[in-house]
Each structure stands twice: as structure tokens, then as C-alpha cells.
Amino acid sequence: MIIEAWNSEINVELAKIYMDEKDKDSANIYFNKAIECYTKIIDKKLKMERPYYIGRDYYNLACVYCQMENKTDALKYLDLSLQKDYKEFEHINIDKDLDFIRNTSEFKALIEKYSKTK
Fold first, then answer.
1. 66-116 pLDDT, tens digit each
2. What are the residues whose beta carbons fall under 8 Å from the beta carbon of 44, sequence distance 6 or more?
3. What integer pLDDT is reported at residue 70 of this predicted model?
4. Which of 44, 56, 74, 75 is the most buried (most CB within 10 A)?
């Protein structure tokens, strides 16, 4: 699982470099590789008796989907992360990776819903 974690982070960083270079096609290749890694991590954790930090993994997927400008999946995985007790609202509210959805009514509704259940 450690290798998948490192690979996901490396792929996200490569994707960001390509985004900075305005090469969205290449960026999406690496974002998709990161999604594969995060999905593999989540699948492995779900098979554990007590999966740890799975909310953070869902959050990372939300960030990747945001950077790919995929609003539907970004909101889906943000919701899952909050359901799984990722309640780092200070970070969520300033994380630039979520800028794509931050001003949507759906994002605001999720934050309001889950911040009440801290």
C-alpha cells in the first residue's frame, strides 16, 4: 500500500506540472494514474477490519477530480470523505485543489451539513 500512496502523490505532482504547462491531455493521463492508485488503496483498506484514514483517501480523490474539472465526481468523493470522518474543515476551506467546486451550492451544502456533526 505504501507504493500506491507514493505513486499517487508522484502522479498528482506530474499532472500539476503538465497543467502549469497548459498540457491538459498529459495532465489527465497522470491524474488518471493517481485515481487508479487511490482506488487501489481504498479497495485494500475496505477489506480490512478497521480501515484507517479512508476519509483522507476519498478526500484525495475529490482533489484529483477537481483538478480534472470533474464536478460530479469531485463532489461525490468529498461527500464520501466527510461521511468517513475527514473533518479537516480549516484545510478544506483553503485547499486550492478544491477551488473548482468551492463556490458551488453543492460544496457549501456539504460543508454546512458535515460541519454541524463535528
1. 999 999 999 999 999 999 989 999 999 999 999 999 999 999 999 999 998
2. 1, 4
3. 98
4. 74
- The whole-number pLDDT of residue 118 equals 55
CA angle (32 as vertex; 30, 36 as ends), nearest 5: 115
Type of residue at 12: V
The Cα 3–Cα 82 span in angstroms is 25
Q: Among 1.10.10, 1.10.150, 1.25.40, 3.40.630, what is the CATH number of 2-115? A: 1.25.40
CA distance 99 to 41: 25
Closest Cα to residue 107, out of 76, 68, 70?
76
Cα 4 from Cα 60, distance rounded (Å): 13
